[in-house]
Design brief:
Rossmann fold; 398 residues; single chain; alpha/beta
Length: 398
């Protein structure tokens, strides 16, 4: 997809920019400050980023009292449904399983955007050409997106009406908020956004699972280990990371040793959630520990049940990946292991979170400026995080 975005996206963005420039030259396209009525947020590929964008969507609704829409890849759709901020009928999805599905759904998405009368697009993607092209074909009068200005590379056309400078020193949720505030700013201010966004402006989404949902989950766990119950001391381990960036994984051997140390504590259970494709690492940890209190729970939960599981557990230890952000919807203590990415930008929005980060000079090697593609094949920054340090962070709350 990166190849398509670069080799096809760049020339298409250039041609569309030339078209827009000609229209502007002849006065056929004039930038106007219009009050948004129907705002479409586009965030296709990162489920965790959907949680981080919650505050921006909430602010858009407060500022403009507009109808909100959201576009996302079909396989990530459940993340936006979880937040319950966008009506079901206002979610536009694109399948990415095959080129044919991708092409058909892209055409369908363009038709739906135009038929719904979308007048404003907030492009949350970091310098994606594809979403920039979608923004153009939406027919929206206003497009707010990240713009490169004088940065080398990262070209995605010049047809955004509200061009926001991406700030690598801001948390990503603050950057998303800047895209919304830009819609209410003078478009002649260059670069946008000329406004401070304080961290306390960022609203945190919360989900309060019902007791019957918690009990249903406990019954699922009891089928594997009858001794576990509501109120048990449960530690969640997530040794996996998205296939988009597997370089973010702390070594499996370290997770094994951590699990062994946790099992030395009396009456503590380890539960490892995940998709059914992620069973291998969980099974390896269980085989290493050889204790029935260590439970492979991969493939046993949907996204909503993952949040429910977090609500009945004490601690989650995870790589820098989606589960850290879904856990932030509850009050669970979160320990996140960062390496190729920086917690300064992508830490979960939780007051009960500890990020362990080695701070190597080469980190972050994954960023908006390289389309999150790193040359690193050996994440020594993660290997530098000691099992003892992670165990210390876990033990103090058990």
């Amino acid at each position: 997809m990166r190849w398509v975005d670069c080799c096809i996206g760049v020339p298409v963005c250039f041609l569309l920019s030339m078209f827009v420039s000609v229209e502007r030259l002849f006065g056929l396209r004039k930038a106007k400050r219009c009050r948004p009525r129907k705002i479409l947020f586009i965030e296709l590929s990162e489920m965790g980023s959907t949680i981080l964008a919650y505050s921006a969507m909430k602010k858009a609704r407060e500022l403009f009292n507009a109808q909100l829409y959201f576009m996302i890849f079909r396989e990530n759709e459940k993340s936006i449904r979880l937040l319950d901020i966008i009506p079901k009928e206002n979610v536009i999805t694109i399948r990415s399983k095959s080129i044919f599905m991708f092409f058909i759904d892209t055409l369908s998405a363009i038709f739906r955007m135009r038929s719904k009368g979308i007048d404003t697009v907030v492009d949350l993607e970091l310098f994606s050409r594809f979403t920039s092209i979608l923004s153009f074909f939406s027919g929206a009068r206003s497009i707010s997106g990240f713009y490169r200005y004088d940065m080398e590379g990262l070209y995605r056309g010049n047809f955004q009406t509200h061009r926001v400078e991406y700030n690598p020193h801001y948390h990503i949720s603050q950057n998303f908020m800047a895209l919304v505030y830009a819609l209410d700013s003078d478009i002649n201010d260059i670069p946008l956004l000329k406004k401070e966004i304080k961290k306390d402006e960022i609203a945190r989404a919360k989900i309060m699972p019902k007791k019957e949902d918690k009990l249903r989950l406990i019954r699922k766990l009891q089928k594997i280990n009858p001794n576990i119950k509501l109120g048990s001391r449960i530690v969640l381990l997530n040794p996996n990371a998205s296939q988009l960036l597997p370089i973010r994984k702390w070594p499996l051997q370290n997770f094994m040793q951590l699990a062994k140390k946790i099992m030395e504590m009396k009456d503590v259970f380890i539960v490892m959630p995940g998709t059914k494709e992620e069973w291998e690492d969980a099974r390896a940890i269980c085989d290493y520990v050889k204790d029935k209190r260590c439970i492979d729970f991969t493939g046993k939960t949907n996204l909503k049940e993952l949040v429910d599981l977090c609500s009945i557990s004490m601690i989650l230890v995870t790589n820098d990946s989606g589960p850290a952000h879904f856990a932030s919807l509850t009050d669970i203590r979160i320990v996140v292991l960062f390496g190729p990415e920086t917690p300064k930008i992508y830490s979960p929005l939780s007051d009960n979170c500890e990020c362990i980060y080695s701070g190597y000079a080469c980190s972050p090697c994954v960023s908006a400026f390289n389309h999150r593609k790193t040359p690193c094949k050996d994440s020594k920054c993660l290997k530098a995080i000691k099992v003892e340090d992670v165990f210390r962070a876990v033990k103090k709350d058990l």
